[in-house]
Design brief:
The protein is an alpha/beta fold. It is built from 6 helices and 8 strands; from the N terminus they run αααββαββααββββ. The strands form 3 sheets. It has a 3-stranded mixed beta sheet. A 3-stranded mixed beta sheet has the order 3-4-5. Strands 6-7 form a two-stranded antiparallel ribbon. The chain is elongated. About 3% of the residues have low confidence.
């Protein structure tokens, strides 16, 4: 049998053999751990430095799809919205000054409560005014901001009511104590309130009405309630 032998032509270079995926994978030779391990353990940076360039390229190609999928599935969390309490119909007992007599008119009504504290709920209903024709409002005029108190704190049965300056002036405008007794009796009808002290926002001097210092604890005058 005659074998033909290819004779290289002058001036022509031999083309390199194509690199297959198998040969590329076989070239990814990771050095032995003993060559880069230290007493504290292997450093990730040293491992990457010792990998061949082809290994780094292949590693990048394999991790890019996973990173892209993770970024695509990540969602920006939206703002947290606090649930609004549903209104409930509750009964509240209020006291108002009598129009012509020296006493208090008791009024029981039902109103919608939207999660307010019982003290603030009662004060809001007191500010809304009486429904009885025999009673007069506690405050001499309407409040521009619609707020009576800045805060109402109760500790061991003693309430400290911090009034706005406008509410304090409207409470004392009549010059008599019946409006004050109406507020004390309304708050005193709540289970955890025994006495009420009045403070005024932004004022150091005590609130005085008809010669009575309202910064001292006041108890409800149930004897003033008219039947």
């Amino acid at each position: 049998m005659i074998r033909l032998r290819a004779t290289p032509q002058p001036g022509l270079r031999r083309l390199p053999r194509p690199v297959t995926l198998t040969k590329l994978w076989s070239s990814l030779t990771v050095p032995k751990p003993s060559s880069f391990l230290t007493e504290r353990g292997p450093s990730p940076l040293r491992v990457l430095r010792r990998l061949p360039l082809t290994a780094l390229l292949l590693l990048a190609l394999l991790t890019l799809p996973a990173l892209a999928a993770g970024c695509a599935g990540r969602e920006t969390p939206g703002p947290v919205v606090s649930p609004v309490p549903s209104p409930t119909l509750e009964e509240v007992t209020l006291y108002f000054p009598h129009r012509t007599r020296e006493g208090l008119v008791r009024e029981v009504r039902q109103a919608e409560r939207r999660g307010e504290q019982p003290e603030r709920f009662a004060l809001q209903q007191l500010l809304a005014g009486p429904r009885s024709a025999e009673a007069r409002p506690v405050f001499a005029h309407a409040l521009s901001d619609g707020e009576i108190a800045v805060s109402a704190k109760v500790l061991a049965g003693e309430m400290v009511l911090l009034l706005t300056a406008e509410a304090a002036d409207a409470l004392a405008a009549g010059g008599d104590l019946l409006p004050v007794h109406a507020v004390v009796a309304t708050l005193g009808s709540l289970a955890r309130v025994e006495t009420v002290q009045f403070r005024v926002e932004g004022r150091e001097e005590p609130l005085v009405v008809a010669g009575t210092d309202l910064s001292q604890p006041l108890t409800p005058r149930w004897d003033l309630v008219l039947e």
